[in-house]
């Protein structure tokens, strides 16, 4: 995504509701997060590794949308009780064929457990982009006995990475800004699923929308940066839609801006 793909003069449009799941598990090296690679023809973040997620349907709760998208894209069902893998595979096949997930679950006597989804963040696409989304990010632990798999339609590859590994491989994974920031946050959090979920519950009450703002920055490789609400120049230098955070907000720490370098995004602190 180059500078030419941002237009700070665009009129502010209404973002479409979306939901994303930061799926985690405990691995040999500690906490791991699951990433899916978007198809090269995807209309948004093509070829990038991202957390499972997608659009929330009209009238649908964000948590329900997150659970539905997680099952559609990764085959992971956040249900009450254990579900055999062969049953999960059949439900996913029928959902992919167009059947409604709610109807399928009722037929199978299954019920979603949306309490497994804990709010983590809320990202809103900059108004300088044509496609805008208001995406709620949730964190959930991989249910025992389930194995996530990409759908080979919208997603074409998958990775489990520790937060530090994901950051080290950011170029290879073509991580977009929200994924970069989220992995940075995960790296600062407890490195076990129970500890991370507890941290997520603690921060849930303090969440504020993150609306990056476009800014001309001559020293940046592409001549621009995306500023986050806690950046010192967010209000004075940023262009487009904004959401100001209270001074000293506990979540407004660390890198505060993104810039492009070649094909990769970088996150950095304000100079």
CATH topology of one domain: Nucleoside Triphosphate Pyrophosphohydrolase
Low-pLDDT parts are none
Give the overall silhouette: globular
CATH class of one domain: Alpha Beta
- Counted by DSSP, the helix tally is 8
Distance between the termini: 23 Å
The average pLDDT score comes to 93
CATH architecture of one domain: Alpha-Beta Complex
- Report the sheet-strand fraction: 15-25%
**Estimated radius of gyration:** 19 Å
Kindly state the number of beta strands. 11
Largest β-sheet summary: 7 strands, mixed
SS class: alpha+beta
CATH homologous superfamily title of one domain: Nucleoside Triphosphate Pyrophosphohydrolase
Relative helix content: 25-40%
Q: Give helix and strand order, one letter per element, not per position.
A: EEEEHHHEEEHHHHEEHEE
Task: Tell me the layout of helices and strands.
Elements: E1 16-27, E2 30-38, E3 49-50, E4 53-55, H1 62-74, H2 85-96, H3 101-108, E5 118-124, E6 133-141, E7 155-161, H4 163-168, H5 170-173, H6 177-188, H7 193-204, E8 213-216, E9 224-227, H8 234-237, E10 257-261, E11 264-268
